[in-house]
From TrEMBL:
Residues 26-291 form the OBG-type G domain. Pfam families: MMR_HSR1, YchF-GTPase_C. The lineage of its organism: Eukaryota, Sar, Stramenopiles, Ochrophyta, Bacillariophyta. This is Obg-like ATPase homolog. GO terms for cellular component: cytoplasm. GO terms for molecular function: ATP binding; ATP hydrolysis activity; GTP binding. The keyword ATP-binding applies.
Length: 422
């Protein structure tokens, strides 16, 4: 009998991650009303103009997928140390989903198609507009990000409520088949199912994402199969004017925070697509980019806004990291004279599963992992392209199948080739 496959350790994961699919190729999707800046910011995240950014609703119809390089100082250090010809950083997949409008859950606009696109991603960048512009129309003809948050959250919850209408029938059908009951027989539903069902409906009725609720492990197992949009983690992104971003303030930010806190909480990232676009347009000229940031910081200083909190810098790296954190993703590294590479896994991944990300045979024939922590390598390698001094210091360890991978692990996996090919 083959050995039981190692399972991921999910004990330390947040609730939203426990609802998620167990895979390492997870994606974030931009969700919001039309003309709030989704396509522009998607372009900025990946550093190229992949998505059409136009000033009219539904200019993005098919979801546009981009790969965003993850800012990673550990990886950069390893690259600088080894100077290998092949360099492969970690990336976050981001999907630009067309704008929703009120009534999307009932098919308004292109709602049904767009909601299915949201269902296909694993986490949500919830983008709201907090800037005035005569040139960029708003679907509701006025700026009110709190109203917009209500609109989008309402549509997502309504969509989930429509899914819940079929959940009981699906569960009864499953139980009927498992127990061999006739169509006329009463079908008993478990206490766990009824509890999960009632909790979810209560949250959705209050326009609150399901991922902010409190559930037992048994309830989570059931809910995971229901395919609810609001089980996905959300990162709230506020698109402000350049002026507001430089000043690190907007009349809308306190109201947005109050709304987010009252709807389960979450990360809020204030940003300005206009600021980021100006900065991105100077790409390739480091001196010009620095001058731009210094000029913006000086503008804030003239208003008495000084200190580390008012030093202007791009928030694009923060957004990418926030997306990774929301999906509970982390990196481990392989390094050598031919290649330095960052591999993406979810938190809680065991060593054999991490090996399988490199090649499925590595997981099937897993023997052990030779692991050292990045910080130990940085401190001990003494400028050498080697882990010899790390080994001498006793910081190079051999780990077995139960080892839970840590962010920043540097690994070599030992596997049985013959066993892996079976």
């Amino acid at each position: 009998m083959p050995p039981k496959k190692a399972q991921k350790d999910t004990s330390e994961l947040p609730l939203s991650a426990k609802f998620a699919r167990c895979k390492n190729t997870l994606s974030m999707g931009f969700v919001g009303l039309p003309n709030v800046g989704k396509s522009t910011i998607t372009n900025l995240l990946c550093g190229a103009n992949h998505a059409e950014a136009a000033n009219y609703p539904f200019c993005t119809i098919d979801p546009n997928e981009v790969q965003c390089i993850v800012p990673d100082q550990k990886f950069k250090y390893l690259v600088d140390t080894w100077k290998s010809p092949s360099i492969i950083p970690a990336a976050l997949k981001v999907v630009d989903i067309a704008g929703l409008i009120k009534g999307a859950s009932e098919g308004a606009g292109l709602g049904n198609a767009f909601l299915s696109h949201i269902a296909a991603v694993d986490g949500i960048f919830h983008l709201v507009r907090a800037f005035e512009s005569d040139e960029i129309i708003h679907v509701d003809d006025s700026i009110d990000p709190v109203r917009d948050l209500d609109t989008i959250q309402s549509e997502l919850c309504l969509k989930d409520q429509s899914v819940m209408e079929n959940v009981v029938n699906m569960e009864k059908e499953r139980v009927r088949k498992d127990k061999g009951l006739s169509r006329a027989a009463d079908v008993p539903l478990s206490e766990t199912f009824q509890s999960a069902f009632d909790k979810v409906n209560k949250l959705l009725a209050a326009q609150t994402p399901v991922q902010t609720g409190s559930f037992t492990e048994g309830e989570i197992e059931l809910i995971r199969d229901w395919g609810l949009i609001t089980t996905k983690p959300q990162v709230y992104v506020v698109n402000m004017t350049k002026k507001s971003f430089i000043r690190k303030g907007s009349k809308w930010l306190p109201k947005i925070k109050e709304w987010v806190d009252s709807h389960g909480g979450g990360t809020i990232i204030p940003m300005s697509a206009a600021f980021e676009q100006e900065y991105a347009d100077l790409a390739g000229d480091a001196a010009a980019q620095k001058a731009f940031l210094d000029e913006c910081t000086a503008e804030a200083a003239k208003l008495g806004l000084k200190g580390p909190g008012f030093v202007c810098k791009s928030v694009i790296p923060r957004m990418i990291r926030a997306g990774r954190d929301a999906l509970c993703l982390q990196s481990f590294y392989t390094m050598g004279p031919k290649e330095v590479r960052a591999w993406t896994i979810q938190r809680g991944t065991l060593a054999p599963q991490a090996a399988g990300v490199i090649h499925t045979d590595f997981e099937k024939g897993f023997i052990k992992a030779e692991v050292c922590n990045f910080e130990d390598f940085k401190k001990l390698h003494g400028g050498e392209k080697s882990v010899a001094k790390v080994k001498e210091a006793g910081k190079y360890k051999q780990e077995g199948k139960s080892y839970v991978m840590q962010d920043g692990d540097i690994c070599v996996f030992m596997h049985n080739v013959a066993k892996g090919k079976k």
